[in-house]
Design brief:
Largest sheet: 6 strands, antiparallel, barrel
Oligomer: single chain
Number of strands: 29
Structural class: alpha+beta
Strand order of the largest sheet: 8-9-15-14-11-16
Radius of gyration: 31 Å
Strand content: 15-25%
Shape: globular
Helix content: 25-40%
Distance between the termini: 70 Å
Length: 691
């Protein structure tokens, strides 16, 4: 018989930990929470200090029964759920269900699932931290009070199945506000003048800077022509050369937010997928002879702190593999954010010696890609800065100044391993200028004026939205991925070309909440609420007081909304065609993934079909049909013949109505990281890239 029972959340975690602890320990999984508020009612006694009514979650009865039986046989029970608020709450609910003393040393926490970390953590069990539990409970009750009071209103006034959430509603507001900015945006014209210059046989580029060393913005073609008219001949004098050495520091190791952002940029992962894969890497991977090992530290964190042990290990690894010159000369100082919990470390590999290549055979393709990203980011974060030689050169013709800039890597430092991605720009590239000295004469080979227009702010990608929510102090590491998932499932927003667009339903719901519950959508108010939850966790305030302060005003708004909120009818918009099954008109309807066409004779006729867009190109395969734009199940745009399934032509790239001048095959628009390039599907014909 096992002397000790350890309870964790998942079977994968249980399997890994049991191997480390030995025969005296039995490790079982609770499969997440065992108790929660009931779904059929609010479950909060408002009159009795917001006392929650917890019940056993449906389907968890057998799990709880098995845990109770095992607990009775064990000498001692340890609760080893994840090291955060959610994990502490799971441990507390288990303690309540198993009649355990929460003040006894029953709670064990660890930041990584490795043999040393597990064994060390069991030397120092502690009581359940009720401040952490209260903070999680307060969040749960606040969300329940908001959701279970506003949602029924929306059902009555708009349509059934709608819901409102604290953090989700603010996320939807950010997306809708951005859409309004885009629609209200008025483009402004501006111009640039690019020049191609020669120093001997060396070509280099420079751009118009200004007149008499004063920067000048060009707003019109007339201003451009005025500049060009002042230039005399093809000779330019090098009027100044500025050479500098610039250091570029590595990015910090990953937090939850930065991991989600970088995985979106570099791996094209959705936030939900990133967290699912990170959970698998944290809980343990079977590495054959080595057994099951947790490959990364806990993945819900907003701290960039690194343990002394991990720092020492990374230092030895970097010196051995790359050389001593790749170690930083100064010790890095961690910049701690004001709202950072710092309960555990940044996300890092549990052992730097476990290189991605060494575990390749044991991981799925996506697990390996994420592990490599985490491993490389951590190693790079502990390396020396890169050193860049930069050069800025001014070229003068009369009073006209053109400026050329160049840079080259003098010492790669951390860039030898990893370079952080960005939302809007490609990674930094070397631009090498010829050896230029003041007084040198260079020749103008070509001058090209270009007209541009200012662009509206970009729509939010998942990465941008996570970054914005974090900067505003809304939500916490564990809430980002579920928030993005929820607002899409509710049909309030949709992803179009990997960018969020609001739906008509989202705009209607937001307008009603904004009118009657302005605090719920106020960014500052929501951020303050997050800070209050932190204060509860730190033991500075009482959780009942925080909820009471919120509910006093919320209840008043609720009473007004019950009386004054008008019913909103979402009318079906005619689609302009008849149903091919019954002959009734088709209409546009709003679904979970945006608009679609459905028969107006529903429910007697259940015919539906996606909205397709004719791009005005004849099918190159059958020569009878037309190419239409469609969307796959994963919302990715593709192009196919409208005679499908008779004609099976499909293309991920947009076909054009003209043929290749070289081989007469079809031309397509190929989307690149920066702009679009027209190219042939058969031969090597390409046209100049459009930005």
């Amino acid at each position: 018989m096992s002397e000790f029972l350890v309870i964790v959340e998942s079977p994968a975690k249980a399997k890994t930990i049991e191997r480390y602890l030995g025969k005296k320990y039995k490790v079982k999984a609770s499969m997440g929470h065992v108790r929660d508020l009931p779904k059929s009612q609010m479950g909060v006694d408002i009159e009795n200090h917001f006392e929650p009514k917890y019940i056993t979650i449906r389907g968890k009865g057998p799990v709880l029964k098995e845990l109770k039986t095992a607990a009775k046989k064990a000498k001692k029970v340890y609760l080893a759920a994840d090291p955060d608020r959610e994990g502490e709450a799971i441990a507390w609910h288990l303690a309540q269900s198993l009649n355990m003393d929460v003040s006894s040393d029953c709670r064990v926490v660890f930041n990584e699932i490795t043999k040393d970390a597990i064994k060390e953590s069991f030397k120092y069990p502690r009581p359940i931290n009720m401040d952490l539990v209260d903070a999680q409970q307060a969040r749960r009750l606040l969300d329940r009070l908001v959701g279970y009071n506003i949602s029924p209103l929306l059902w009555k006034k708009v349509k059934k199945g709608l819901s409102a959430g604290r953090v989700q509603s603010v996320a939807v507001r950010l997306i809708i506000d951005r859409e309004k900015e885009i629609k209200a945006f008025i483009p402004e014209e501006y111009w640039s003048i690019d020049g191609d210059f020669l120093k001997g046989k060396d070509h280099f580029q420079a751009t118009f800077y200004g007149i008499n060393h004063e920067k000048l913005e060009l707003k019109s073609k007339d201003e451009v022509e005025n500049v060009l008219s002042k230039m005399k001949g093809n000779k330019f004098i090098v009027s100044s050369v500025l050479k500098k050495e610039r250091k570029r520091n590595p990015a910090a190791p990953f937090t939850t937010s930065s991991l989600q952002q970088e995985a979106a940029r570099k791996l094209n992962f959705r936030a939900k997928k990133t967290m699912m894969l990170a959970q698998q890497l944290y809980e343990g991977i079977d590495l054959g002879k080595e057994g099951t090992v947790g490959l990364i530290t806990y993945m819900r964190t907003d701290s960039t702190r690194i343990s002394e042990v991990a720092l020492g290990e990374s230092e030895q690894y970097i010196e051995k593999i790359y050389g001593k010159e790749f170690l930083p000369t100064e010790k890095k100082k961690e910049k701690k954010k004001s709202n950072s919990q710092d309960a555990h470390e940044a996300i890092r590999p549990t052992s730097v010696s476990r290189e991605p290549a060494s575990v390749k055979d044991f991981l799925s393709r996506d697990q390996l890609r994420l592990y490599r990203l985490i491993w490389e980011r951590f190693i790079a974060s502990q390396m020396a800065p890169a050193v860049m030689d930069t050069m800025s050169v001014d070229l003068k013709n009369e009073d006209i100044i053109f400026r050329a800039t160049g840079s080259k890597v003098k010492f790669p430092g951390f860039m030898k391993v990893y370079v952080e991605g960005t939302d809007d720009q490609s990674e930094e590239k070397e631009r090498i200028l010829p050896d230029l000295q003041e007084g040198d004469v260079v020749l103008k080979k070509d001058i090209e004026p270009k007209q541009h227009f200012t662009q509206p702010p970009p729509r939010y990608t998942e990465a941008r939205l996570v970054k914005t929510l974090e900067e505003l102090g809304i939500g916490r590491p564990s809430t980002f991925a579920p928030t993005l998932d929820t607002i899409q499932k509710r049909g309030y927003v949709a992803l179009d070309n990997k960018r969020f667009i609001p739906t008509e339903l989202g705009e209607i719901v937001l307008e009603l909440i904004l009118e009657f519950f302005p605090d719920i959508l106020d960014v500052e108010f929501t951020a303050k609420m997050e800070r209050d939850l932190d204060y509860i966790e730190e033991g500075k305030v009482n959780w009942v007081q925080i909820i009471d302060d919120f509910y006093v005003d919320f209840e008043k708004h609720l009473e007004i909304a019950e009386k004054e909120m008008q019913e909103v009818e979402i009318k079906d918009e005619p689609a302009g065609e008849d149903c091919e099954l019954c002959g009734n008109p088709m209409v546009f309807k709003m679904g979970r993934y945006g608009k679609f066409m459905a028969c107006s004779n529903f429910p007697d006729c259940r015919n539906t079909k996606p909205i397709v867009k004719d791009i005005g190109v004849e099918c190159p395969k059958c020569k009878e049909g037309q190419i239409i734009e469609r969307k796959s199940k994963k919302r990715r745009v593709f192009y196919g013949c409208n005679r499908f399934p008779e004609c099976d032509f499909i293309s991920w790239d947009k076909p054009l109505s003209r043929n290749c001048p070289k081989c007469e095959n079809i031309l397509v628009e190929k989307k690149l990281k920066k702009g679009v390039q027209v190219q042939c599907v058969e031969c090597d014909y390409k046209e100049e890239k459009q930005s």
